[in-house]
Amino acid sequence: MGHEAEHSLADFYFSDSDDPLCPPEAFVQWAEAGSWAISMYEPHMLGAVAPRMAIERAGERSDVINLSSYNYLGLATHPEVVEAAQEALRTYGTGACGSPLLSGLSDLHRGLERELAAFLGQEDCILFNSGFAGGMGTLAGVLRKGDVAILDAKTHLCSIDGVKLSRAKLVFFDHNDPDSLDQALTDSEGARRLVVVEGVYSMDGDTADLPRLLPVAEKHGVGVLIDEAHSILVYGAHGRGVVEHYGAEKSIGLQFATFSKAFAGCGGFTVGPRALLHYMRYYINAYGFSCALPPAVVAGLRKALEVATRDNSLRETLWANTRYFREKALQIGLDLGHGSSQVVPIMVGSDRRRLYELTRTLHRRGLFLAPVDYPSVPEDGLRFRVAITAAHTRADLDRALEILEDTIIRGRVDEAAE
Fold first, then answer.
1. Catalytic residue among 109, 154, 156, 261
2. 230 is catalytic
3. Could you confirm whether 159 is annotated as catalytic?
4. CA–CA distance from 62 to each of 165, 234, 361 (Å)?
5. Burial letters for 174-200: b for 16+ Cβ neighbours within 10 Å, e otherwise?
6. Which of 90, 136, 258, 293 has an alpha carbon 20 to 30 Å from 156's alpha carbon atom?
7. Would you call 290 a catalytic residue per the annotation?
8. Nearest 10 degrees: CA dihedral of 63, 67, 70, 75?
9. Is the whole model's pTM more than 0.85, yes or no?
């Protein structure tokens, strides 16, 4: 991997091809030259998502400790969750076979909506068959041309795309900076406005600074939408997210979250006032024009919610593992950025070649971590992103730390990647 390490996907966003059905020639050449690095993406999972599992990358099978999956509470293989999904599969079949508005909504879907709304102390809930589509659709459903959406600079792409789809004006404020938010709100006075933040930021692992940001939004009389994708069931005394963690339930207008993280399923949901959500159902194309979630998935999600909230044991185990890993990782000299959550970045710097060499070496040593490259993160902030779960044992974490120390700190890079 030589000159190709000097480029990234961002360099080919605007195509030099005359035909939109033909990829840029420069991209084809770049991808061929760096194929050994690109092959680190789209690994094949050879079984259920678990702390120890088998994966295949670039034709190489490896038994690995998995630090890349969002299975925060270990529910992906929980016996009760699996049994609930199997029973629904036998009773309801494989798919919903219709959009929620027309023919895809079952009693299971309505049950999950009611349970989530009650759990989060809201009046109503909308389910989505995709987390990304749910985040995007929620904003596209509430915003219109002429509105102003004011997003934290590190907000997820689904929110950015939702604002663009609505044709509202997109404005960013500096990450977690109340003064920057205040200025953005002052500059946009006179328009309908909405502030958008995340519970836990997915690449840095820090939380929205609600104690400092919410008073600014309230001063301007502007509502707030929070994306709790990485914080639902994880933060708060009862797992109700960063909103509960900071005691801000009455200050948030809409709360969105995904099912693909702590719930260990797929899809997403938004909770809020019944009248607003009733309106949104007819103006979110990702809801009204997409097939509803498969009933078996919904049944698994309902059981996952029950298991995760019957007591605090899974959440307490997750936080104990998170504290342990973070403490030991800092002791061996890893750069973990500034976060404090179960999402743990391991900063690599700006050397793209080293990022992919480390990825391959870690794979061969038995540790599954995915490279995070620009433009997903800044060019000088290349990293791996660790996902700690309640299912990891101390032996899993110790072995992972041993491999990380040997590979990243001591610099033993696999010669086969040269």
1. 261
2. yes
3. no
4. 41, 30, 11
5. ebbbbebbbebbeebeeeebbbbbbbb
6. 293
7. no
8. 60
9. yes
